[in-house]
UniProtKB/TrEMBL annotation, chain A:
Residues 1-14 have a biased composition (Polar residues). GO terms for cellular component: mediator complex. Residues 1-60, 170-244 are annotated as: Disordered. One of its GO terms (molecular function) is transcription coregulator activity. This is Mediator of RNA polymerase II transcription subunit 19. The gene is med19a.
UniProtKB/TrEMBL annotation, chain B:
InterPro entries: Mediator_Med10. GO terms for cellular component: mediator complex. This is Mediator of RNA polymerase II transcription subunit 10. One of its GO terms (biological process) is regulation of transcription by RNA polymerase II. It comes from the Eukaryota. Belongs to the Mediator complex subunit 10 family. It comes from Salvelinus namaycush. Signal peptide: none annotated. Component of the Mediator complex. It is found in: Nucleus.
Amino acid sequence: MTEMFSNLYGQNEAQGPPGSSSLGFGPGKPPPPLPPNQVTMAAQMPPQHGDEGPALRKPGAMNEPFYLLRELPVGNELTGNTNLITHYNLEHAYNKFCGKKVKEKLSNFLPELPGMIDCPGTQDGSSLRSLIEKPPVCGNSFSPLTGASLAGFRLHTGPLPEQYRLMHIQPPKKKSKNKHKHHRPQDPIPQETPSDSDPKKKKKKRDDDPDRKKKKKDKKKKKNRHSPDHPGLAGSQPNSNSLR
Amino acid sequence: MAEKFDNLEEHLEKFVENIRQMGIIVSDFQPSSQTGLNQKLNYMITGLQDIEKCRQQLHEINVPLEAFEYIDQGRNPQLYTKECLERALAKNEQVKGKIDTMTKFKSLLISELGKVFPEEMTKYKAIHGDDPPLIVTLDL
């Protein structure tokens, strides 16, 4: 490449220092005529336009009439000049998500999901990231449990230990002004199922609820404290905070 | 497409509700609740079978991992969508600004070169087509 360049323009150095005039630039100056041997060299040179040529020359570059004149790139129809939101018909989505305030908590997105879902998943090991990094062993088909398998699910009677009780308690929800007809009960009472349609069973379950038992106990204690027949201190006891 | 999601959503809701009821039964277990618990355990297995069937219809669905980050933090995943749209719009505006600036520069350069090198610019325009300047006045 450099040899060809020097062959083309090297002899001009004998005439004068190479400057803008030798390249044909400059206000109103005509380009100098090529010496005869350079004309033949130019004729012998392979066609510039579109040839692969030496590795240094970029494809599509021409040397006539301007050095390294390239073809303009084919313009894309879709550029940053276009409003891409409109182009992909996302105005509705944009107004929905960016026009209105989106609530921060996960429980606002999944209001029907029970449990404390607003806490980070890393705290109780329920993160989706851990599920992706360590997927559970699966592949076997799901088959119903037989009698022998169900024997392992025979539980002891009575309430759960304290540490496991909070699993089914929902976080307190703000009461909205417009009360929805579909209201999920906060108390851990199971919804009606075909097997539990008997009203007697319903009453029994309500009585067996541990929270209600505690409430009843507290109420009894309060009554006993404030009654004149109570042997302990009368009237000076601080009120205990009852459970909700 | 939406039907597949509705189907999966329905199965998931039933499954979660079943698990919730199992939790209530277990929280204060009575011997009479054993049959109900066994029934719910089998409901849980059929629920898993139904969810497994839904998986085959949704194997082409891709979910961005960044959305999982929001869920793991206890945040609404719609915030991820919102932030994506806002970032896309901001980038769109940024690129549009660059295009506009480069277009103005090109017009200005062509007009100034035309004043300084009129003959050369005539040749250039003959090759690349007459590219009229997009601006008439200069914002200086």
